[in-house]
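pinned: reference chain
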Amino acid sequence: MKLVNKIKFDRCVNIIKEHLEVNDNILFSNSRSMDGVDARHTLYKLCSKSSIRNNVISEYMKEKGIKVSDSNISASIKRINKLISDDKDWASVINKLENYL
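pinned: its structure tokens
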């Protein structure tokens, strides 16, 4: 099962990098820039949609050099869900990204 989750995680990472036009330096940094924050939060949302549990997401992020707690991942997903419900443009972007899963 671990291999399946790793494949799903890597697929989500590639979707984010390709369609949000960010690289590893932005996605896997502790930067508070909006590009980095939005990309990471969107990654967590896609991983969640792919049935990857928060503790597994946290583990893979740690392998990439980012320490993030399960509760931070949950809060990030809630933030994205709020953006989706409040902003049609965000909803469209997330829907498009989810279609690549």
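why pinned: The domain at 2-99 is CATH 1.10.1750 (Chromosomal Replication Initiator Protein Dnaa; Chain: A;). The chain has a mean pLDDT of 96.
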